[in-house]
Design brief:
about 550 residues; Glutamyl-tRNA Synthetase, domain 2; 23 helices; about 45% helix; Rossmann fold; elongated; four-stranded mixed β-sheet; about 10% strand
Amino acid sequence: MDNNQKLAELLFPNVGTVEELEQRFPQRDLPEGAKVTRFAPSPTGFLHIGGLFTAFASVLAAKESKGVSFLRIEDTDKKREIEDGVTGIIEGFNAFGIEFNEGVTGFNTEKGEYGPYVQSHRAEIYHTVAKQLVQNGLAYPCFCTEEDISAIREKQEEEGAVIKGYFGKWAKCRDLSFEEQERRIKSGEPYVLRLRSQGTGEKRFSFDDVVRGKIEMPENYTDAVLLKTDGIPTYHFAHACDDHFMRVTHVVRGDEWIASVPLHIELFKSCGFKILKYVHVAPVMKEDNGGKRKLSKRKDPEAAVSFFVEEGCPKEAVLEYLLTLINSNFEDWRRANPDSSLFDFGFNFKKMSQSGALFDLVKLQDVCKNVISKMDAKTVSDYVLEWSKVYDPEFYNIISKDTGYLQSVLSIDRGTAKPRKDIAKWSEIKDSVSYLYEELYSEDYTLPENISADEAAKILEAYLSVYDAEDDKDTWFQKIKEMCEPLGYTPNVKEYKKNPDAYKGHVGDISSVIRIAVTSRRNTPDLHAIMSILGKEKVTQRIKNAIDAYTK
């Protein structure tokens, strides 16, 4: 037994072998070309919209290729972890219908055969790989304290070292004898395990990024920490082990990780793992003072996916909008396939932007309006009930009393060739329908400048004399047109525009007065439908109340 093997047994006396792990986590039985992707957040805060963006791309890539996507929780940084951070991440994905084939499904729950899917539960795996690295002379214990590391940095700065870090002559523990290592370990001296890098910093290498093409970089030369003093792996080491044994094919992640590729590739090579394909995704950006910047957790409320949930943006619309950012050809596909599920879209990594997707709340709102306009009244009703139960209980208590009435309200101008597009989120519906609920209705009889209160009262009195709640829409409108001439108005808008001095106004003015009396608004969807839903008693009473207000 050579010294490397002795050291490995000393450091890791009770672990198995990498060969056993290979058997425990075999290659996945998937079709040729199938992608295995993962989204691997840390439970250190809310789910960021950029995270949803990257996760969605990962899920789509796996789905399009008949592969597998999974959710892994990377909780090796215990200092930054927040209490029950996993639940917030899961709830964020559930709110938008993002489903992974495997991985963490909740607090202490998961599904799949390649787990555990939480890094803190995988210590045995990391230690097994670490033992093999030590056996192969590619890892060693480092006893340097934080003070030692600080002193090395200071010395490098004093000497004007171009490259700084723990490597070469600065790696004080790299060439300790086995006897020295054994003595210090047995005496209980704290240590970390470091990679014995084979790089010199003088060579360059290249790799093919799926989005960005060929990227050339200097090779890794630092003896990076693999295991901390408590045996917990660093992110870099853990992700290499996890991605290999979970049989990931494509690593989809933010482009801020490009700088880590040299280390990651050396780790894969040192461990004897197949190097994966990297997909570095540009960040989600925001316009700011004429420039662009990354969406900020601190500055931008829309950076958190919970913002869109609380506002009541339809999950389908948020995903639809994200796809316009994820793939440049999605909008053309949507125009050609207006009624298809967005999951039918042929996602392609190569259609992703290299420069950063600009998140535009105004455009998202337009997408939301379009998506909601295509929903039937039952779907909209179900969504607004679900949303309001959590975020507006008062509104929920009002509309949940009669869901049939709610569906009638929401059916106005819906399901037609040109459906209404005035609602962008569930939080807007309360104001949109308030005049149809007595508990929410507030009278406002403000008239257009061209119509006096006396004139409005005459119009409403004339309308009450012909109003019949049983009239169909054509009959209803014909009666309004017949009211025009006796009151000094024209039923023909074009005629009024041609000769405005000959009339007090046109049929639209008559309709406006009735609309204001019934709804207290100047603009509403189909007035006949509104009056039909309110019913004769309410309509009549509201018109009488308006007459009283105008004649006081």
